[in-house]
Design goal:
Length: 377
């Protein structure tokens, strides 16, 4: 039976971080009972759309899903397991913000069925947390990691680097401190300036801060890889590091071009229905999504059938992010790729290939977007 990764999106946050372009909204009041009922309804609809699958993972993302009621989390997990039975234990992750209020709910989330938590720590330095507009302090961050380690079988946390004025030395020292607290997985993201964020305005229009140039960015990335390799938490994806066997099963489904379904506002899906790949997205506005599910049973805004070549292109883009690389036999990829360019980039040390696999080297990953678009010409 086809494996299924299930994504559930909670679109609310206590405040909007200045760098964030995720589908996250601040609302004074959220009708928790209505959201409970409506998310379950869209889950049922998804099952009627895709039929039988074997559930392999659930991921509660956001927004800030640690603001959800643990009862709602428990009900969604229970219903998903009924809709798509699975023989083996499945990975069930929740993204959590590390304020003390949310850490106070960790036990209830574990009892609801969460067995992996991903904490949005972002930095261990007070001045960086202030710059990033976070609601938590450095001591709350430490306390949340320590608590998560005692409560959940698996935990990970996110850090953002390449901040204004950050030197390689400073980042190396922060990362070494973080490693003392790390479990089997860490996500390390370079700060990017996204459109329609407060940082976009501050950086591009007001010149409020400067960022590391390309050269410093590359040095920060290389220093990160070296430290993480030494710690045996290798990059299995550009920004995601894990001890072997502790990769996020759920996120691998996106990068490996597998089936995933999205429930909740603005959630994406790649569904396999009667042999055809569908790209789905639900309504982004929480209010419109809620109303549509209440009226029609689902909040789907887009449901497009993808050609094999389109699916192949996105698979190439996603899977080249992985250290395991791309399987050229999938989605007729071998016929989509420019073989002369592939040989050229191989000789330049940007790619490595064998009979069926193509992998980007560390150098190649630094210019991945360009590499992918050139390979598809
Ligand atoms: C869905 S978001 C946030 C989850 C959770 N609400 C939180 O803030 O901790 C997942 C992660 O993406 C990263 N992220 C979001 N926007 C980013 C940006 N502009 N640059 C770098 N990393 C970013 C952050 O590390 C964040 O924890
Ligand atoms: S980074 Fe997390 S907490 Fe901040 S606005 Fe985005 S989703 Fe919400």
């Amino acid at each position: 039976m086809t494996p299924l990764a299930l994504y559930i999106h909670w679109p609310f946050c206590k405040s909007k971080c200045p760098y964030c372009d995720f589908n996250s909204h601040v609302r004074e009041h959220v009708d928790m009972a209505a959201w409970h009922k409506t998310m379950l309804a869209e889950l049922d609809y998804t099952a009627s759309l895709i039929g039988e699958h074997k559930l392999v993972s659930i991921f509660f993302g956001g927004g800030t899903p640690s603001l959800m009621s643990p009862d709602t989390v428990a009900a969604l997990i229970e219903r998903a397991k009924v809709l798509w039975p699975s023989t083996a234990p499945i990975e069930i992750t929740l993204e959590a913000n590390p304020t003390s209020v949310e850490a106070g709910k960790f036990r209830a989330f574990r009892d609801a069925g969460i067995n992996r938590v991903s904490l949005g720590i972002q930095s261990l330095k007070p001045e960086s947390l202030t710059f990033l507009g976070r609601e938590h302090s450095a001591s709350e961050a430490l306390a949340a990691i320590e608590l998560a380690a005692t409560i959940f079988p698996r935990y990970s946390f996110d850090l953002i680097y390449a901040l204004p004025h950050q030197s390689v030395k400073e980042w190396e020292s922060e990362l070494s401190d973080a490693l003392k607290l790390a479990g089997d997985h860490l996500s390390l993201y370079q700060l990017t300036i996204e459109e329609n964020t407060a940082f976009h305005h501050a950086y591009h229009h007001k010149g409020a801060f400067s960022l590391p140039d390309e050269e410093l960015g590359a040095s920060l990335y290389e220093a990160t890889q070296a430290i993480m390799n030494d710690a045996e938490l290798r990059a299995y994806e550009i920004s995601n590091h894990a001890r072997a066997g502790y990769e996020s099963r759920h996120n691998l489904a996106y990068w490996r071009g597998e089936v995933y379904a999205g429930v909740g506002p603005g959630a994406h899906g790649r569904l396999l229905i009667d042999g055809a790949w569908h790209a789905t997205r639900t309504l982004k506005s929480p209010e419109r999504w809620l109303e549509n599910v209440q009226l029609h049973g689902h909040g789907l805004d887009e449901n497009i059938i993808l050609k094999t070549s389109e699916r192949g292109q996105e698979y190439l883009m996603m899977a080249l992010r992985l250290s395991e690389g791309v399987d050229l036999r999938r989605f007729e990829l071998a016929s989509l790729i420019n073989h002369e360019r592939m040989a050229l980039y191989d000789s330049m040390g940007l790619l490595t290939r064998n009979a069926h696999h193509l992998t980007a080297t560390d150098q190649g990953r630094l210019v991945l977007n360009r590499l992918v678009s050139e390979l598809l010409v």
